[in-house]
């Protein structure tokens, strides 16, 4: 629920280490801007933040006296106050008030922002409670994924599609893709 973009230097190091310039901060910034509607009171007014995306980023409103004391104490220990830790044009280090993905008192999720906000006709088909067990590959083009096999209520099912996009977390995605990669190598 806390919203933090991550550190600019990490993206730039990934881009350099993997020779993948598309992961540099400069290149991922437009996606960060596109996803958010930022109403954080101390956010920079420049181009760093997005204003019209589906994910509402706002101030955390549950502050009390201890919060103020904590922020003050951190500064007395030498940490600078950071008004907007999601603006990479300034250093991210420091003590800050949390920015959160909350809108009208409810948590903003990928589902609420991108799925439930659309009409039923616009939404993709969603199969709930399915566990993907295997990525299916094209018989003639070995590295082309063409579907998935999954478990639904203890029954094995499969679906073929023109494009497979895996977002099962980095570990699960690799775990399912690796057997085919190993075989190909
Ligand atoms: C407490 C906490 C706070 C965080 N805060 C931040 C933050 O402020 N900023 C930030 O950038 N990052 C933050 N992160 C990290 C961030 O949440 C993750 O990096 C990100 O969610 C990873 O996204 P993902 O889509 O790769 O995987 P996930 O979000 O883990 O999604 C994977 C999904 O795939 C499903 N799945 C897995 N295996 C299968 C299968 N075989 N079949 C079907 N479905 C499957 C899982 O159930 C899950 O729903 C935080 C993480 C935690 C735990």
Task: Explain this structure.
There is one protein chain. By secondary structure, the chain is an alpha+beta fold. It has 2 domains: 8-121, Arc Repressor Mutant (Orthogonal Bundle); 131-184, no CATH class. Helices cover 30% and strands 19% of the residues. It has 5 helices and 8 strands; from the N terminus they run ααββαβββαβββα. The strands form 3 sheets. A 3-stranded mixed beta sheet has the order 1-2-3. A 3-stranded antiparallel beta sheet has the order 6-7-8. A hairpin with a 7-residue loop joins β6 (131-137) and β7. The longest helix has 16 residues, at 169-184. The chain is globular, with a radius of gyration of 21 Å. The two termini are 40 Å apart. Bound molecules: flavin-adenine dinucleotide.
Which SSEs are present, and which pair or pack?
Layout: H1 8-17, H2 25-35, E1 36-38, E2 55-59, H3 65-76, E3 99-100, E4 102-103, E5 106-107, H4 110-115, E6 131-137, E7 145-152, E8 155-160, H5 169-184
Parallel strand pairs: 1-2
Antiparallel strand pairs: 2-3, 4-5, 6-7, 7-8
The structure holds flavin-adenine dinucleotide.
* Small ligands present: flavin-adenine dinucleotide
Gyration radius from CA atoms, angstroms: 21 Å
Largest sheet: 3 strands, mixed
Looking at the structure, the CATH topology of the largest domain is Arc Repressor Mutant
The SSE string, one letter per element, is HHEEHEEEHEEEH
Report the principal-axis shape: globular
- Percent of residues in helical segments? 25-40%
E-strand count: 8
Give me the oligomer status: single chain
Average pLDDT for all residues = 91
Distance between the termini: 40 Å
Percent range for β-strand residues: 15-25%
SS class: alpha+beta
- In the CATH scheme, the class of the largest domain would be Mainly Alpha
């Amino acid at each position: 629920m806390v919203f933090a973009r991550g550190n600019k230097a990490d993206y730039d190091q990934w881009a350099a280490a993997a020779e993948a310039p598309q992961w540099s901060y400069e290149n991922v910034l437009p996606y960060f801007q596109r996803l958010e509607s930022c109403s954080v009171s101390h956010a920079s007014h420049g181009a760093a933040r997005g204003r019209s995306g589906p994910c509402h980023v706002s101030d955390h409103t549950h502050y009390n006296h201890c919060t103020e004391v904590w922020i003050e104490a951190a500064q007395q220990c030498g940490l600078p106050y950071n008004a907007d830790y999601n603006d990479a044009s300034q250093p991210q280090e420091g003590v800050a008030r949390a920015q959160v993905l909350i809108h009208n008192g409810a948590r903003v999720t990928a589902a609420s922002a991108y799925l439930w906000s659309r009409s039923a006709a616009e939404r993709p088909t969603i199969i709930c409670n399915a566990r993907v067990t295997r990525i299916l590959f094209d018989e003639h083009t070995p590295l082309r994924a063409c579907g998935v096999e999954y478990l639904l209520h203890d029954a094995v099912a499969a679906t073929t599609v023109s494009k497979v996009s895996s977002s099962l977390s980095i570990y699960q995605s690799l775990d399912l893709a690796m057997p085919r990669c190993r075989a190909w190598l």
